[in-house]
Amino acid sequence: MEIFELHQGTSPVILAFPHTGTYVPPQIRDQLNDNGKILADTDWHIHQLYRDLLPGASTIRATHHRYVIDVGRDPTGASLYPGQNTTGLVPETDFDGAPIWSEGGFADTAETQQRLAVYHAPYHAALAAEVERVRAAHGVAILFDCHSIRSNIPFLFEGTLPDFNVGTADGRSCAPAVEAAVYDVARAAEGYSSVLNGRFKGGWTTRHYSNPAGGVETIQLELAQATHLVAEAPPFALDPVKSERLRAHLTEMLKRLEALAPSLAEAQP
């Protein structure tokens, strides 16, 4: 099993899929309890949802599950949201706060460091190289970090999550025009709710690669899974009718970002 799947495109837009992988090596899967083996915290079908929406876009997808190690987390283990419930590099619990490991199965420090080297570092080395390749080719790279999550998770947030959760690290990760290109579509989408920099402001990838002054724009979209799944429960099946309706709005977002790239490149010092 490859650590990641990379497709190098011709567009200034890069799509990243850190949490759609479901592969768990057998020796790690054996340490999961019955709850953990459900893999409930997967970003179900997100890479399929975005497929061919912007044919020239580069894509990178982690193939392993976030329970092996979460490539969306800071490799130092620092929390993205201090003071709020969240999960770490190797999660101890699922998003509901329930244990996912059998007794003695949780990775110790040495095991975590090994997984960082085997899974986390190669994914980000490839992503960093692709960001630089695209930036060199176009004068700008726009990294769109693609995520999804269940709509109701009391352990992580109160109430029902909006359908579109746009994160730009409170406006620091990208130019205002990039933020507007995505959020204006979300806000205008009939029948959907949206929020800008709400509970999800952009993860480590969004924050780490962000360098608008250097030609790298980053933005994250966290979709509520109610927008595209039959039900937010096993078997987490993709709803084709919901998906096609949603894909129209995602396409508009990505096309607007791509169209922005030349002006962003011209504005570079």
- Percent strand equals 5-15%
Which class do the helix and strand fractions yield?
alpha/beta
> What's the average pLDDT?
96
Order of helices and strands: EEHHEHEEHEHEH
State the separation between the terminal residues, measured CA to CA.
42 Å
Give me a quick take on this structure.
It contains six helices and seven strands; from the N terminus they run ββααβαββαβαβα.
Walk me through this protein's architecture.
The protein is α/β, with parallel strands linked by helices. The protein has a 7-stranded mixed beta sheet with strand order 1-3-2-4-7-5-6, with helices on both faces. It is globular.
Fold blueprint:
Blueprint: E1 4-7, E2 13-17, H1 26-29, H2 46-49, E3 58-62, H3 109-138, E4 141-149, E5 164-167, H4 176-188, E6 194-196, H5 204-209, E7 216-224, H6 240-266
Parallel strand pairs: 2-3, 2-4, 4-7, 5-6
Antiparallel strand pairs: 1-3, 5-7
Helix pairs in contact: 4-6
Features:
269 residues, alpha/beta, 7-stranded mixed beta sheet, 6 helices, 7 strands
